[in-house]
């Protein structure tokens, strides 16, 4: 981010992307300050504390959304869904969609190393911005940002989760029932060029 009118324009474009305009723009600037920039800019605090807060806020909001939208899902699948929605790769993708990397303040070395496109930096910055939104506008504003940017991805994640490894699901069910882990037996029939494989899962003997 640059000074003067350029900084205001940057703040305005980011506000449009996240659906929230800051009252205290100093919070936004702090949310965008990667730790690599602090040694080169006196008095600049890194976004790490805001990232910590944003991570907690994100987990809460996504948990609230999936709990109310997917009343048929058991606890284990709700947990899997939340984890898939808030992981670093997913958040970095959202950050790229809103061009967040363009706004992040990096040190010269990190900038030269294409830090503005690193998943870790982008996901951390996204969480920091969310934390700043929470401090500036409260829970409702933070909830609105997540609904705008994260919630539309949930149906896609649900589709991916529906194809979760069935072995993992069976293992979880076995553990809940107090049984030993499943034992798998695979057999095959037919010629080498057209073998037919059959897998059997045995639980509890």
Written overview of the protein:
The protein has 10 helices and 2 strands; from the N terminus they run H-H-H-H-H-H-H-H-H-H-E-E. The protein is mostly helical. The chain folds into 2 domains: 4-164, Ribonuclease III domain (Ribonuclease iii, N-terminal Endonuclease Domain, Chain A, Orthogonal Bundle); 165-205, Double Stranded RNA Binding Domain. It has a two-stranded antiparallel sheet with strand order 1-2. Helix 2 packs across helix 8, helix 4 crosses helix 8 and helix 6 (88-97) crosses helix 8 (119-149). Residues 1-7 have low confidence and may be disordered.
Short description:
This protein has 205 residues and is mainly α.
Question: What labels describe this entry?
Answer:
205 residues, mainly alpha, Ribonuclease iii, N-terminal Endonuclease Domain, Chain A, Double Stranded RNA Binding Domain, 2 domains, two-stranded antiparallel sheet, 10 helices, elongated
Set out the fold topology:
Elements (H helix, E strand, L loop, with lengths): L3 H15 L6 H7 L3 H4 L9 H22 L5 H12 L1 H10 L10 H5 L6 H31 L4 H8 L4 H11 L6 E7 L6 E7 L3
Antiparallel strand pairs: 1-2
Report the CATH topology name of the largest domain: Ribonuclease iii, N-terminal Endonuclease Domain, Chain A
Give the H and E element order: HHHHHHHHHHEE
Instruction: Estimate the global geometry from the Cα principal axes.
Output: elongated
Lateral strand order in the biggest sheet: 1-2
Biggest β-sheet description: 2 strands, antiparallel
Oligomeric state of shown chains: single chain
Write the CATH architecture name of the largest domain. Answer: Orthogonal Bundle
How many DSSP E strands?
Answer: 2
Number of helices: 10
Instruction: Give the CA-CA distance, first to last residue.
Output: 64 Å
Indicate the radius of gyration in whole angstroms.
23 Å
How many domains make up the coordinates? 2
Mean pLDDT: 85
Which CATH class of the largest domain applies here? Mainly Alpha
Helical proportion? 55-70%
What is the CATH H-level superfamily of the largest domain?
Answer: Ribonuclease III domain
The fraction of residues assigned to DSSP E strands is 5-15%
Structural class call reads mainly alpha
Low-confidence stretches: 1-7
